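seq as requested:
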Amino acid sequence: MKPEYRSLQPARQAVILLFLATGAWYLNWRLETFNAAHPVFSWLLYGAEVFGFFTAVLNIFMTWRLSERTAPPPALGLKVDVFIPTYNEDVEMVRRTALAARAMKYPHETWILDDGNREAMREMAQSLGVRYLARTDNAHAKAGNLNHALPHSTADLIATFDADHAPRQDFLLKTLGYFSDPNVAFVQTPQDFYNLDSFQNRTDPGSRVAWSEQSLFFRVIQRGKDYWNAAFYCGSCAVIRRQSLDAIGGFATGTVTEDIHTSLLLHKKGYRSVYHDESLAYGVAPAKIEPFLKQRVRWGVGAMNVWRKEGILFARGLTLPQRLNYLATVLAYFDGWQKVFFYFAPVYVLMAGAMPIAVDGWVFLLHFVPYYLVNFLAFEEISRGYGRSLMIEQYNMARFASFAWSTLGVFKMRKRFGVTAKKAREHASSLGFLLPQLAVLGLNALAIPVGIVLFYFNGHLPQDGMWANVVWAAANTWLAVLVVRFTAERGVNRRNEYRFAMPLAARLDGVLGTVDDLSPSGMSFYGVLGQAKVGDRVPVTLYLPDGELDAELEIRTLMHAGDGGQAYVRAIGGTFHAMPLPVTQRIEQFLYGSDAQWRINRYRDDSPTPLQRMGLVDTPHAPREPVGYWAGCEVATDAACADGCLVGLVSAHAAEKEEAQLLVNRPLDPACSHVIQARGRTGLRTLHAKAAAHETILTGLGTLYLYRMELLADPAACASRDAEPMVHAAIAAGSRA
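struct tokens:
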């Protein structure tokens, strides 16, 4: 039985049908344009174009309909084990995941499966009260580690998390209910990553975009696969039925990607899979290009190993749609060879004078431009706003050589399983991993002047062909420059640990203000500060959902601003000094395994498509206005209410509004009026407001409440409602988020 689904809207269907018709028309015409003087070059270009069209058709088939699921409630009495396999990851990283896993709601037992057989890991597991299991060898890597644990477990269901993936408290509540269907073998959820400064992330705080290179896969492609019962297990953030595992002999071995291999074996047995499209766990993405590319090579080699070993297209037990879905996954890595040709073809044309197309330039443009534009529009619409063509092209440039290399796995190339490095190395150079991109940049940049000079001296190319290839080479050069520049920016390792963009109320040396970013080792603080100096140690109190946390902060940096020609300290950055482990763990529980960073900051990873901008397709989500700025505040209720006084954060908008947002650690009575006081450099500012609506944000320490507050006239503070926007402006000067 297929899940509920959302199909393409009529306007998008029209675009896709137009693309299919335009593509067939263009490719049919291209058969008449080969240059007889260069037949091999002509056929290679045509083959690259046909490959692109074919994979686009597969993608359309795969994502025409996207599953929409609502989690059923879990049955009572299920036996659940949580497996956290680890090899060489830091103890502190595994501890954070284990803390989050241990705190999940629904009875379960957490296991740390240590292939590193480390005493420090054993002691950490014992201190947390979770099970620890090690083995004497590392046969079959991660799959072998998981299989070694199966005889020690008596659970009905096994949840698996990579060592860096910290689950939300409601993970099991949102996934176990699907197993009421005895034919469901596994439930997969998205893999999201909290370090928004990783190599695969593009974050723009101004527009509130937090897009990832994997957004398209987890937001669209997996949902499309789910409709066809072809979503695959990704090795983490998933729950799998023990009985189904036993039916295929445990987690699949013999390839370096046990996840897709295990999925394929289960689908061949006739089991069903479920993709629950809700982010329920958060991990660490590769910080730099080196681990990013090594991870993609491993995925690609593993996909080739599975293709060679299991057949895919002719595998018995798979339906035709399942075969096509798996084929689309495998063929994605051959995109690297297509890009090799596209990146170096204009170099060959400009330097050798070899044209693969024998028609006038204007005739070619009359065919190519419509096809290209419709192709672009179709990709944007089938991607539902998660495609972001320019970003996708940059990552195509970054990984093309790795993808091409990985396809050699189809010829029995084997790759040793390697754990992807999560932390940035202080002085690691990315130069060696940029050699293919530097070659694209250098050769295309060189080919442009060489081609122009050769044209003017001996006319080695038609004029229109020469200029067309100059534009092509310039585009390749520009794309390579973007990738090299971005890689260099990501190569600067400013901190050893990611700081969450997590606004939080705090007092620094008694001054109420705003934590701008936070990690278990340090924070930044905005507020009205005195004569702070680098090296000072000052007391700090954080207002966490479960209560106050006291610590000592050593000031490392000062951020200054000017007011009327007079400089002052507007913010400080520092590290926590001699913090006891239980206190550190409270911060870890608050930060990890929560989507608070995204929800408070209103981050999204999709953007409006062209049809949505034109109003031809509805936007599925109402836009959420970003907060902009936060200020630490005290909230008191009127005398008739018993809410008492509490500390929180109040928003301030650049534009004039009649409402504010309030972030607090406990619910407010909507029947009460509230007095919100925030102190900035201009003095104490007061708002009178009522709670109009709110959303709850679950963290490992409890719930945060984000309120939309309707501002009320305050006769004591202002003569009319017209004065209220000035209060907003004053609060805006207090701190930023």
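The longest helix spans residues 463-490.
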